[in-house]
Recover the amino acids of this structure.
């Protein structure tokens, strides 16, 4: 699937704006055919946005189930004879879409794109009705998992991840026209041979018999540096300007389908020439060791929830730059493609994560309720869950494979990993990731409950990624003991001979709460906690990165564990610095990346 683009041969029209919207608490919309006409009793809803925080009533805020969106759009008059596609960048967690009376697509998974080919259903100039039934419920076969428990007041959704289960159409919706003979996919893999950059490419097309595939590579100034005919090949760029941390230099690869002298289809793929590789305990980008400084983040903003918004994105990247970060993890799901583009353009290194979070009853059961389940069993996360998980790994890699910013795939966050069931579940998933992308390291994020010596899944990973909360969830307020046990555990991991990234370490901190001596929840404690962790990391050569949890405070389910959400941010939810952000800035900006 290629992204909607305006090119010489392609045109797109945004469907973002106000749509009609309605909850379906009784789940009758599908039976009653709500797509067959104008949505009755609808209220306006912004697209893109999570629906949950735009309203004032608890029912809508907490709603789990089917919600209906509807809009009308006129297919541009000039699009007759073209291939016409309806493209959703995401709908959380699943959606079925109708155009007028016909169902056109169903998609499972809340953070990746899907589309429907409307060519045979619509024509240029026609006004069409688009209806989407979006469902945000979670079950043991969804990624992420959840379940519904019966309570005296009715069914209640529980899930085992620590961020609010926002729902809705979270990213842009497009109508797109392409030629019927069209480009369908492009894959680039880059390499370095001395001062020469190599760009291996493979282009897939549809109805392209007799057509020539041509690729033209241009530098950032638009000057052509290489070209080739054929659906696959290798381009060579003498004196290539490499993509690297802090230097988001991008080439443009124009892919064309040519009929005699006519360009039938054209699509632009940005290309950053770089390599990524693990060598012993080092993580190498362009054969140079890198040290990751940054955060686990969230797509989470006041009012719009998990929606993508360019203004918020720019603020977040400005803060990353200000604080001296060079990396982040897309905890705990694939982020918007605009975010990935921005990271490309700014030379930010990204650990790209699937939505597989909460596959851990030992951890989640205790914190989030829903006790007494077994993580991997025929009744809970099972073969079907594994199939869905494998598919989301493939889909994520298909979407993000060409982003130079992506240096590591994370196939899960904090799953159970100390049991035979976990080992059996995960072994094939690493193969799935490596088959889909043999070029990047693959890992998963290990949880404290499976410390060194007990984890049975890290053997499959190329690098070790650890979330650790010594001094917070264990030894709270006792940083002296925390430092000792943390050092001991980390030394254990270092003996594995793989690079280690600390993907989470953090302490909830209520902005403005000051205490001397420092106590948990105060800004002072967050600083002491960071200092303790940094001493532990600095003493361990195998540590190649620190990503503090979290970039900013974020929304979670309500409960006694959380005060208006998770408060481990270096920045507040409205993106202002806590003392910790200034502290990290001093460390990171002063750091010679080892
Ligand atoms: C974790 C999770 C993250 C939570 C964090 C916390 O280990 O990976 O999603 O938000 O801990 O603050 O408890």
């Amino acid at each position: 699937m290629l992204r909607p683009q305006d090119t010489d041969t392609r045109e797109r029209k945004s469907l973002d704006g106000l749509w009609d919207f309605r909850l379906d608490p009784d789940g009758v919309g599908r039976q009653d055919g709500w797509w067959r006409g104008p949505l009755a009793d609808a209220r306006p809803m912004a697209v893109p946005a999570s629906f949950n925080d735009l309203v004032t009533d608890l029912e809508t805020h907490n709603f789990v189930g089917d919600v209906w969106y509807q809009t009308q759009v006129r297919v541009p008059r000039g699009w007759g004879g073209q291939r016409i596609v309806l493209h959703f960048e995401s709908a959380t967690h699943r959606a079925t879409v109708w155009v007028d009376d016909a169902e056109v697509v169903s998609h499972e998974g809340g953070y990746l794109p899907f589309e429907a080919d409307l060519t045979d259903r619509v024509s240029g100039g026609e006004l069409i009705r688009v209806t989407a039934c979006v469902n945000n419920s979670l079950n043991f076969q969804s990624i992420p998992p959840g379940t519904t428990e019966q309570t005296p007041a009715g069914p209640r959704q529980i899930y085992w991840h620590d961020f609010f289960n926002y729902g809705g159409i979270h990213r842009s919706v497009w109508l797109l026209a392409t030629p019927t003979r069209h480009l369908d996919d492009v894959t680039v893999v880059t390499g370095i041979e001395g001062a020469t950059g190599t760009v291996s490419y493979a282009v897939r097309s549809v109805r392209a018999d007799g057509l020539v595939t041509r690729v033209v590579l241009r530098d950032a100034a638009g000057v052509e540096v290489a070209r080739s005919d054929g659906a696959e090949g290798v381009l060579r760029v003498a004196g290539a300007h490499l993509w690297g941390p802090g230097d988001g230099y991008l080439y443009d690869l124009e892919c064309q389908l040519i009929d005699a002298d006519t360009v039938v289809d054209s699509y632009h793929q940005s290309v950053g020439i770089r390599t990524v590789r693990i060598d012993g305990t080092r993580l190498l980008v362009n054969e140079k060791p890198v040290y990751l400084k940054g955060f686990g983040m969230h797509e989470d903003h006041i009012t719009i929830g998990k929606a993508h918004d360019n203004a918020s994105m720019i603020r977040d990247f400005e803060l990353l730059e200000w604080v001296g970060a060079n990396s982040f993890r897309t905890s705990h799901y694939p982020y918007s493609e605009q975010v990935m583009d921005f990271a490309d353009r700014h030379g930010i290194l990204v650990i790209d994560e699937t939505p597989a979070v909460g596959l851990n009853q030992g951890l989640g059961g205790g914190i989030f309720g829903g006790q007494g389940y077994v993580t991997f069993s025929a009744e809970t996360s099972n073969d079907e869950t594994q199939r869905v998980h494998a598919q989301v790994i493939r889909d994520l890699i298909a979407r993000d494979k060409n982003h130079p910013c992506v240096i590591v795939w994370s196939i899960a966050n904090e799953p159970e990993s100390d049991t035979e069931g976990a080992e059996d579940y995960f072994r094939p998933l690493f193969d799935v990731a490596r088959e889909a992308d043999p070029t990047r390291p693959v890992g998963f994020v290990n949880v404290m409950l499976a410390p060194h010596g007990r984890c049975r899944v890290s053997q499959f990973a190329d690098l070790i990624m650890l979330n650790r909360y010594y001094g917070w969830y264990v030894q709270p307020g006792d940083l002296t003991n925390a430092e000792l046990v943390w050092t001991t555990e980390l030394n254990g991991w270092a003996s594995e001979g793989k690079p280690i990234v600390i993907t989470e370490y953090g302490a909830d901190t209520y902005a403005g709460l000051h205490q001397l001596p420092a106590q948990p929840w105060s800004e002072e404690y967050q600083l002491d906690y960071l200092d303790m962790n940094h001493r532990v990391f600095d003493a361990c050569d195998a540590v190649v990165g620190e990503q503090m949890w979290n970039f900013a405070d974020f929304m979670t389910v309500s409960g006694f564990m959380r005060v208006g959400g998770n408060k481990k941010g270096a920045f507040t939810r409205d993106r202002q610095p806590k003392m910790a952000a200034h502290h990290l800035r001093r460390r990171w900006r002063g750091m010679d990346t080892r």
Notes: The two ends are 38 Å apart (CA to CA).
